[in-house]
Each structure stands twice: as C-alpha cells, then as structure tokens.
Write a structure and sequence with these properties.
Strand order of the largest sheet: 5-6-11-9-10
Order of helices and strands: EHEEEEEHHEEEEEHHEEHEEHEEEHE
CATH architecture of the largest domain: 2-Layer Sandwich
Largest sheet: 5 strands, antiparallel
Distance between the termini: 27 Å
Strand content: 25-35%
Number of helices: 8
Helix content: 25-40%
Amino acid sequence: MNLAIKTDVHLKDLTTFRLGGPAEYTVDITNLDELREALLFAQKEHISFKVIGGGSNILAKDAGMKGLLIRNHIKGIKYTSEADYVFVSAGAGESWDALVADTVEKGLFGLENLSLIPGTVGASPIQNIGAYGVEVKKTIHSVEVYDVQESVITHFSNAECQFGYRDSIFKRPGGERYIVLRVTFRLKETGDTFIGYRDLADYFVRIGIARATPAEVREAVIEIRTAKLPDTTKVGTAGSFFKNPVVTSEQFDELKKKFPDLPGYAEDGAMKISLGWVLDKMLNMRGVCMGDACVHDRQALVIINKGNATSSDVDMLAQDIEKKVVELLGINIEREVREF
C-alpha cells in the first residue's frame, strides 16, 4: 500500500468547528485509485469509513471516531460550452468558493449567490447548499460518484439526486454507499441574477442598482456574509447549525395569529419560517453560552466555539435551543450539521 494511513490525527484539526477527538485512522486521497486503496484497507481491517471534504459542516464527538476517515482531495476543473450553456465539471476536493470565484470571473451566471460558503465542491450536492434565495440544485447537471457497494463509477442526473431543502439522496439511508468524485454544473453566459432575497434586495436598492451582474452579486454576498457571519479561519463554527423549519400554510396561519410579526415565506407549497429571527427576536438567544459554546452575537442560527468548547457543550446548547423552540412554537427543529 502506497497510501499514508495516519493514526495521530484529531478531528478538531480537520473541522472548522475545531472540535472532536482522534480518528482511529485517517487518509488523504487525490484520485480514484487512492480511494479504492483506502476502501480496501478499511475492508481488510474490518472497519467502517467516513468521507469528508473541508470539514465545514461537521460536529465531531469529543471521543473521536472509530474506523477510517477519508479526506477527499480530488481536484480538477473543466469547462465545456454547449449551445446556450457552459458545463463546469469540478473535482469533489476543489474549494467551493474558489470555484464560484472562477465562474464569476468568467462572467458565468448561476453560482454567484453561493459565494463564500466554506467547504468543498463534493459537499454541495450532498447538502444541496443554499444561500440568498438560491439552492445549488438549480445549477447541478449531474454528479459522478463511486458506488462502494458495487465497486463502480456511476452518474446521478439532477432528478436522480432527489434534492430537497438541505437534503439529497446522498444524505438518506443507504446514501453513504456513494462517494462524490465530481460534480458538473450547468451555467449560463447570459441571463439575470437573482437579487430578490431581502438582504440582497436592500443592498442593491441602497447602492442604486436594479439589475446586477454576477460579479456585483458576489461582491454583495461577500460583504453581507462577512458582516453577519464569523470567519471560519479565525472562529470555530460549522455555520448555520439548524435548518429553517418548514410547516404547512395552515400551521403558519395559526402561528401568525399568536405571533403576528413571525416572518415566513412560501416555498414548494409550504411555508419556511425564519428560525434565526425566532432565536434572535423571540428567544433572545444571541450571545447565550454553555461553556465555550455560544450562539453567535450577530447571527443566532450560528453556534461558535470560543476556544475551548467541547462537542458536549455544543450539543447541550443545541438541545436547549431545540427545547425552547418547541415550548414557544410547538415545532421540532432539525440540525443542519453532520454529526459523527
């Protein structure tokens, strides 16, 4: 075996939350052959495996993890023009924001609203990442994966990915058999950007622009995100810790009777409630801490590690938030972070 299998790596050094104990085994892979070699090692040792990219959406346990942690560093970006579209194929290990920046620099439309999201390309279809009114599912053409069960490469079309709100087939039971190798996006050389999301709309009204270019949207998103969210290179965090709850229109109408100012917006026949607003305006959670795990003082959807937090601290804080939301609204909220 040519791969360097490590045994002295802690998850706190591999995740943006900067939490978690040691992984039993860790390996970095840069191509399919190395991936197969890593999986063969796990098979021979009779151990489980998990795959991560940038570690930006993970809450790792203080005790660490058993088995093999595979860090996906498969790189490479290819642009292909076809009719009115440009297809961009990117390796799972590419930096997400670097890819967005590159497409915007080339004048392409589609990914600009998703600027400055931490992590790698491989996580984008798994999580169906979204921000400022746009989800990545709108641009994904196909996803190339390695099927561990069948030991073959296969491709998922957009429809086959079964995208949902921060969800896909890859997150559901059985989805762990698929390891993302590459993602192909379908972007446009001309078109309109989406600036209808409130923060973006306010930004462009303020500067007097009615129709923004992808570059202008990216600049706006970076400015807005930087003002509201912690820098993951300086502060331990996994970003938004919870999903916004989705309820029926009837449920939302009942809640509005009790809480007239409760913000929500229609999506796919349901209503999505702004959980950040609830945590901030109704529950006054900004700045609340348990140990060194704290609700961010500028965005209540975000939990941060002030320096010496444990995953147990984060879990207790999250449970407290979940309990308070149930008591207030009668709604169970879901965590967005991946826990292991």
